[in-house]
Automatic annotation (TrEMBL):
CDD domains xref list: AlaRS_core
SMART domains: tRNA_SAD (SM00863)
Comment, domains: Consists of three domains; the N-terminal catalytic domain, the editing domain and the C-terminal C-Ala domain. The editing domain removes incorrectly charged amino acids, while the C-Ala domain, along with tRNA(Ala), serves as a bridge to cooperatively bring together the editing and aminoacylation centers thus stimulating deacylation of misacylated tRNAs.
PROSITE patterns documented for this protein: AA_TRNA_LIGASE_II_ALA
UniProt-recorded name of the protein: Alanine--tRNA ligase
Role, per record: Catalyzes the attachment of alanine to tRNA(Ala) in a two-step reaction: alanine is first activated by ATP to form Ala-AMP and then transferred to the acceptor end of tRNA(Ala). Also edits incorrectly charged Ser-tRNA(Ala) and Gly-tRNA(Ala) via its editing domain.
Organism: Sungkyunkwania multivorans
């Protein structure tokens, strides 16, 4: 069974059980402070489990792109070493939101596996939560046990502990016991030797978990306690690649048609052979896996970077480069070449891979080039460490520095050291790593309290498109404490005019006024799992009361100007540069806007001017806002609206149109483009390979900009004594200046020539050497010239010149080559005499200089020079 068919059979099976089929949500998360990536199929539905949003469908099924590389679920280090964990994988899932529970979930899973997919019942085992006698004091899941007992032999039902059979999304939130389904795909011979049930949950590569049925029935509170959820839910997750392995009769996920085209391509490019040597196998698997994760992340809009999610993506790619470098002997970028195969193979199910192929290739290639450079540099640094190591052990600190400052992989350090018969102090390294982690954790630690509910409501309503003031009630609040921001309160209202940060636009600020006049300031507004959360410095005295919520009008108005201008800029870029331009990032602030987009070369000045003029023309046209809420996604797209990839859109959307510009957008906008007043591009530059960034201003900021420019120009004019034509006047000054410079140079040359004659007369003969130590008023280059010219004209010369340049002192020593010796060594002399001028230096035996910061010491240094010519016995 081809993987395509495996996927479609799953979805049609649950469609037949009245499930709504939905598309995969993005893999990179935008509004979840607790999670960077979707790490399980349930993540896009968190808002329903948490009760923040009312469900539209009580039964859903889908396949979801997941990434497990950070936080609670992190499989990164396993990937490649085993044959059934990936960084990025697809999770097939079916959901019930307060609808069916354990009985149907169990029966349907069984029906699908054994009847639709035809897996042999004798190869399946299931697990049930055995209960726990820790603080949670949970009973065994008898219910699940009984439902299983009705369909499977009892000796195939195994008891599982909390680690394996109690699923938790994170430290807080919905959780519950689970039942896993494991499959044994060993040969009959192997099965006869060891019973499968002894290998369940024992990390055996052919006895693996394929499906987890989670029974969400509790909520984990901040204090660690559990409370029953008002409604019970089903959350299941089946590893798509593992299922393909089982159904295609192979023993590794990498032997399925999901991975084999990539593996063939890696073999061809790197001239290696899969299934020959285990270290090569691992490296090939790492590359095949990681290119998927990185490509999907980039398509989702997450570029590799230095922080946060971008850094995680960078690390995955670097891990692949490093395995290729060491084990497949690839010293040139090659991973980007795999994107072609990947997009051919998966582009149908995930069209973003096709449409963004070139960008993905460019970004990966650039990352590869730069990391290969890092590796080369790191190797040099490591050589240095090896050369200087005392004994056999390289300290953890040294290795950590290499890792932390230069990005050199620690396992590569360990490998190279062992090849050289040396050892790495791994414990020391771990200590350093831990210290660093503690430091950053302490800096970002946030303690979040439980929600305290004050008023019951259905669902919070956003009214901020129509009004900036509203009467609100606080429905719930909680306290958060972070090292960075101190103590804050998060408030949720029954309705709110406050726009929460999103779509690049900053969150609203404002205040909350109680009926008795007390005011609490709202310093920011953010969305968290679809809940609009207001951040306040304090809590109103009477939280149960009614308040007037008021948005800061000025900030909102400035922000709206920048948001509308962003749409016009997007349109302008697509008109001037071409429709290959896609939005890759946007920041709409009250003071400025920033727009990232795909384009493969610098935007020429002419084009920038054209873009700016285009936007300003739309402003002059006074285009009115045409806003449509609640139209269907399909209709909006058919009418030509632009949707952004990596955004999660519902069935009904909001479309914003100004003339020919039409985008799906949740942000706030001006009523008419004329409100923007004027648009000015401040800068254009590169963000990454194939991604450019434009920063621009509008409205008040543009006015201020003009005022500043005019003021600065007036100052220039005043400095030029109000010249009629300042540009011409500056040109004349510049020419004059150049001519004067040239004259000075000539004069200095002349002066040096005269000086040479004078100095010659001052030479003293000491023990057969022509000696002179003197302060001169020349610069370093001139002194050097002078010394060498004198040296060319006479033998047995020992010169020490000093000069002062502001707060600095410079000593220059010249000694004729024929008389240099261990004692008469210019390098040594300036180093020793350098101490009088509080500095140091060095050079060759016949010529050396030293610089210092104590000109007052010059006299003494000059006096001491003669000592070098005195006999010492
Ligand atoms: P395992 O113990 O094998 O790591 P898990 O307990 O972490 O699995 P769940 O969190 O229950 O798995 O995820 C549900 C299903 O997703 C699993 O049954 C498995 O089929 C699949 N799965 C989990 N992690 C991975 C991964 N890293 N790569 C591929 N598939 C995975
Ligand atoms: Mg796992």
């Amino acid at each position: 069974m081809q993987s395509k068919e495996v996927r479609s059979k799953f979805l049609s099976f649950f469609e037949g059980k009245q499930h709504q089929i939905v598309a995969s949500a993005p893999m990179v998360l935008k509004d979840d402070p607790t999670l960077m990536f979707t790490n399980a199929g349930m993540v896009p539905f968190k808002e329903f489990f948490l009760g923040n949003k009312k469900v539209k469908y009580s039964r859903i099924a889908d396949t979801q792109k997941c990434l497990r590389v950070s936080g609670k679920h992190n499989d990164l280090e396993e990937v490649g070493k085993d044959t059934y964990h990936h960084t990025m994988f697809e999770m097939l899932g079916n959901w019930s939101f307060g609808d069916y529970f354990k009985k149907d979930a169990i029966a349907w899973a069984w029906e699908l596996l054994t009847e639709v997919y035809g897996i042999d019942k004798n190869d399946l085992y299931v697990t049930v939560f055995e209960g726990s006698d820790d603080a949670d004091k949970l009973a065994m899941d008898q219910e699940a046990y009984d439902f299983w007992k009705a369909i499977i032999a009892e000796d195939r039902i195994l008891m599982g502990n909390k680690k394996d059979n109690f699923w938790e999304m994170g430290d807080q939130g919905p959780c519950g016991p689970c039942s896993e389904i494991h499959v044994d795909i060993r040969t009959a011979e192997e099965k006869a030797k060891t019973p499968g049930k002894d290998l369940v949950n024992m990390d055996h590569p052919q006895v693996v978990e394929i499906w987890n049925l989670v029974f969400m029935q509790y909520n984990r509170k901040a204090n660690g306690g559990l409370e029953e959820l008002p409604a019970k839910h089903i959350d299941t997750g089946m590893g798509f690649e593992r299922l393909c392995m089982v159904l295609q009769g192979v023993r590794s996920n990498y032997d399925t048609d999901v991975f084999s085209p990539l593996i063939r391509e890696i073999e061809t490019i790197t001239h290696s052979k899969y299934n020959t040597d285990e270290t090569i196998n691992i490296a090939i698997r790492v590359v095949a896996d990681h290119v998927r994760a990185v490509a999907f992340a980039i398509a989702d809009g997450q570029l590799p970077s230095n922080t946060g999610a971008g850094y995680v993506i960078r690390r995955i790619l670097r891990r692949a480069v490093r395995y290729g470098f060491t084990f497949l002997n690839t010293k040139e970028p090659f991973i980007y070449k795999l994107v072609h195969t990947l997009s051919k193979q998966m582009g149908e199910a995930f069209p973003e891979l096709k449409s963004q192929k070139q960008l993905i290739e460019n970004v990966i290639k650039e990352e590869e080039v730069s990391f290969l450079r890092t590796l080369e540099q790191g190797l040099v640094l490591l050589e240095n460490i090896i050369k200087n190591v005392k004994g056999k052990v390289v300290s953890g600190e040294k290795a950590f520095e290499l890792y932390d400052t230069y990005g050199f992989p620690i396992d590569l350090t360990a490998l190279i050291l062992s090849e050289r018969g040396l050892e790495l102090d791994e414990e020391g390294f771990e200590t350093e790593l831990q210290k660093q982690k503690d430091r950053s954790r302490a800096a970002t630690k946030v303690a979040t309290g439980d929600w305290i509910h004050c008023h019951d409501t259905d669902e919070e309503v956003f009214v901020g498109y129509d009004t900036l003031k509203a009467d609100v009630k606080i429905t719930r609040y909680r306290k958060v404490e972070s090292k960075k921001e101190g103590e804050l309160y998060q408030l949720v209202f029954d309705q709110t005019p406050f726009y929460p940060e999103g779509g690049g636009q900053v969150g609203d600020k404002g205040y909350l006024e109680a009926s008795n006049g007390g005011v609490v300031y709202i310093i920011d507004t953010k969305k968290e799992n679809n809940l609009i959360v207001h951040f306040a410095k304090g809590l109103p005295r009477d939280v149960e009361g009614t308040f007037k919520a008021v948005v800061d009008e000025k900030q909102r108005a400035r922000t709206a100007k920048n948001h509308t201008a962003t749409h016009l800029l997007h349109q302008a870029l697509r008109t001037v540069l071409g429709t290959h331009v896609e939005q890759k990032g946007s920041m709409v602030h009250s003071n400025y806007l920033r727009f990232d987009f795909s384009h493969f070369s610098k935007v020429a000045d002419e084009q920038l001017k054209e873009v700016e003029a285009f936007v300003n023309a739309r402003i002059r046209e006074q285009l009115p806002l045409d806003e449509r809420r609640g139209i269907s996604y399909k209709q909006a797209i058919n009418e030509g609206a632009i949707a952004l990839f990596g955004e999660k859109y519902g069935d009904s959307v909001r479309a914003i149109r100004f003339g020919e510009s039409m985008e799906l957008c949740g942000g706030t906008h001006v009523e008419n483009t004329a409100d923007i007043w004027h648009f000015i591009i401040k800068s254009e530059g590169a963000v990454a390979a194939g991604i450019r960034r434009i920063e621009a201003i509008t409205g008040d900021a543009a006015k201020e900009y003009f005022v500043e420019k005019v003021e600065a120009f007036n100052e220039v004019k005043a400095a030029l004594k109000h010249a009629k034509n300042p540009v011409r006047t500056i040109g004349i000054l510049q020419d004059e200046n150049a001519a004067l410079k040239k004259q000075i140079e000539e004069l200095m040359k002349e002066k040096a020539k005269n000086l040479k004659g004078d100095l010659k007369k001052e030479l003293q003969e000491v023990n057969g050497v022509h000696f002179l130590a003197k302060k001169v008023h020349l610069d370093a280059a001139q002194i050097k010239n002078l010394a060498f010219e004198l040296g060319g004209e006479m033998k047995n010369l020992f010169l020490l010149f000093a000069t002062q340049d502001g707060e600095k002192a410079i000593l220059t020593c010249y000694i004729s080559k024929e008389i240099t010796s261990e004692k008469l060594h210019a390098g040594t002399i300036v180093r020793e005499l350098g101490k009088y001028i509080h500095g140091g230096g060095g050079g060759q035996p016949f010529f050396a200089t030293a610089g210092g910061k104590n000109p007052a010491g010059i006299e003494e240094a000059l006096e001491r020079a003669i000592d070098y010519l005195k006999e010492t016995n």
